[in-house]
Design brief:
2 domains; globular; alpha/beta; Rossmann fold; 10 strands; six-stranded parallel β-sheet; four-stranded parallel β-sheet; binds D-glutamic acid; about 270 residues
Length: about 270
């Protein structure tokens, strides 16, 4: 296989990273992808740092064994925990997703935003750094951090619009809406799959920000700089690997990304 025809690896603790994969695939339709989901070891957002680090390294090394030319960490929790360490270890470019706090503050008319993410992300050093950099440009702004335990599990179970999911969302939105935020950053890659219910609950005047397009642009930029674009004109394909694969997982994968997505078991 020609160097540029090699696939791009994308991983997450589970199916959340598919919300990033769908945006990347639309941006780079000629590329091949391998998506790895660690469903059997999820959630990562409530686990110790060491656990998240080990699982992220495991998935990254699996992707490397598949000869990928770049890796996208489509998980805010892993991105926050591993920081730049993974990129320093790996022989291929690594793109990490992160909550675009500064961009959200710049767009906010009221200088107040909410960030929904895992408890691990909102308490991580990496996120606190992102926040303090953003606040140095907008010193009077307010950022309402909201850890959302239990929400990724709703997506993993394919429960995108059930009363239980809606109740959780209402509970997590309350402090953000009470503070008067007009932008909500989805700082966990599972949450874009809940956009419909989120929109219904927030009403007009509040915008939801999905960081996936920024990650897609970063990947595009890296491929350009490193001259790694796939040169073939044909449409690329994606192979899905799921840890702990079973019929229910296959069902949720198909519902979230495409009926044609046939998963293989993650070794
Ligand atoms: N999708 C993940 C994120 O973006 C993690 C969810 C979890 O495993 O807790 O943070």
């Amino acid at each position: 296989m020609d160097a540029v025809d090699r696939p791009i690896g994308i991983f997450d603790s589970g199916f959340g990273g598919l919300s990033v994969a769908r945006v990347i695939r639309a941006r780079l339709p000629q590329e091949n992808f391998i998506y790895a989901a660690d469903c059997g070891h999820a959630p990562w957002g409530t686990r110790p740092d060491d656990y998240v680090r080990r699982r992220a390294e495991h998935l990254a090394h699996f992707l490397l064994s598949q000869n990928v030319k770049a890796i996208v960490v489509a998980c805010h929790t892993a991105s926050a925990v591993v920081g730049d360490d993974l990129a320093a270890q790996l022989p291929v470019p690594v793109i990490r997703i992160a909550p675009p706090v500064r961009e959200a503050l710049a767009a906010s008319r009221v200088h107040c935003i909410g960030v929904m993410a895992t408890s691990k992300t909102v308490t991580s050093k990496s996120y606190l750094q992102i926040k303090s950099e953003a606040l140095s440009s907008y010193p009077n702004a307010r950022i309402v951090d909201q850890g959302c335990p239990g929400l990724m599990e709703c997506v993993e179970r394919g429960e995108l619009n059930t009363p239980a999911t809606r109740n959780l969302i209402r509970r997590y939105l309350m402090p953000i809406l009470e503070a008067g935020a007009d932008r909500i950053v989805l700082g966990c890659t599972h949450y874009p799959f809940l956009t419909e219910i989120l929109r219904q609950e927030i009403g007009n005047g509040v915008e939801i920000i999905d960081p996936a397009p920024i990650a897609a642009e970063s990947l595009h930029r890296v491929l350009t700089e490193k001259r790694l674009f796939n040169s073939t004109a044909a449409a690329g394909r994606t192979i899905f690997y799921v840890d702990d694969l079973n019929p229910q997982r296959q069902h949720v994968l198909s519902a979230l990304i495409s009926r044609e997505a046939n998963a293989r078991k993650l070794p």
